[in-house]
Amino acid sequence: MVKLGPPEAHCRTPTYLRGTSGEVVELVGHYHNPSLLAFHKPGLPKVWLYRVRFKQTSIWDQYKGSERDCVMADLYEHWLMPTKEQ
Amino acid sequence: MTNSNPHEHNHGHDHDHDHDNDHDHDHHPINADHEPESDDRYLEQALRELLDEKGVVTATQIAQQIDIQDSRTPALGAKVVAKAWTDPVFKQALLAKPLETINRTFDLTINTPLELVVLENTPELHNMVVCTLCSCYPRMLLGIPPAWYKSTEYRSRVVVDPRAVLEEFGTKIPTSTEIRVADSTADVRYLVLPLRPKGTALMTEAQLEALVTRDAMIGTAVPSIGSGLYLNGDG
Question: Angle at CA B62, nearest 5°, toward B59 and B63?
């Protein structure tokens, strides 16, 4: 699940995904923290980046397309938390 | 720009000037005679001259960057796609290690800390690309993004109702096909590998190349016989 926290300085977590749940499909890598880079800091410690797939119907109540349609986004670990079922 | 430039690493995922840069004007600062003057242009000129004066970047480096930007056009992406359609070994390598494979195969030196991921369309899956937060775009392969790609309208609507947006582009995807919108939020840039159109079995790689449009690699269009950068076929 994507956290509902307030945006960071250089936030790479889109508002429309906050508070929604998706499935982690890939660990993308270890990157410099963009919010620290935005202040010309070295961006350390590095943060893990995950590729997460969200069903459109779980983002939008009134999604008009197919049940199968998805959005995929790359999100940093500190924005993610396990869903309750896990 | 080189890695020794202290300002370079501070850009993080921004190296390809991929985001929130409304400085996407045509980059003609060196011979700006014919451009209308505007506040933005004065600001850009002042900043550029200051950077030059302070030795942060030289005019030569700026000119080189402009050359690099101008050398990247959708034609480069089209070459990659056409080769992937005709060469299964290349396609496999492309999907596994995109930039490395492209550099090796086409004798290029695309050098960016950003990662490129190639999203392969199948009859069951149609990919399309957006950057809802700014305007991240696979510039290393497609060059400068079209204005609509950076518009608030495209960026906000494509994640809410991608099928309606596709229809406005004249693209109809069956409901049995999953539409997957890749939102380029972080350090990865996405390129769509479209489906090879039917009826092209006898076409050469060069002929196929001409069918691959920029929009097909963004995922807002699908290539077909008759689509293409060179509609008159004289490429």
Answer: 85
Q: What's the pLDDT score for residue B230?
A: 46
In the predicted model, what is the mean pLDDT of residues B163-182? Answer: 95
- From the list B88, B98, B164, the residue with the least C-alpha distance to B128 is B164
Better pLDDT: A31 or B127: B127
The contact set of B with A (CB < 8 A) is 9-13, 115, 132-133, 159-164, 175-188
The whole-angstrom distance between A23's CA and the closest CA on chain B is 14
The answer to whether residue B135 is catalytic is: yes
Domain B72-218: top CATH class: alpha beta
Q: Tell me if the pTM is above 0.90.
A: no
| Partner-chain contact A12 B163, CB within 8 Å | no
Q: How many angstroms separate the CA atoms of B131 and A73, rounded?
A: 9
Number of CB atoms found within 10 A of residue B85's CB: 23
Active site residue B131: yes
Q: Name the fold adopted by A15-79.
A: SH3 type barrels. (2.30.30)
Three-state DSSP state, A35: helix
Instruction: Locate B228 and state its tokens.
Output: 């293409």
The nearest CA of chain A is from the CA of B112 a distance in Å of 14
Task: Give the nearest chain A residue to B156 (CA atoms).
Answer: A16
Q: Interface pTM (ipTM) of the complex? A: 0.90
- Residue identified by tokens 């670990």 is A77
Query: At B130, phi and psi to the nearest 5?
Result: -150, 165
Structure tokens at A77: 């670990």
**Residue B158 region, left (φ>0) first, then alpha (ψ -120 to 50), else beta?**
alpha
Asked whether the beta carbons of B212 and B78 are under 8 A apart, the reply is: yes
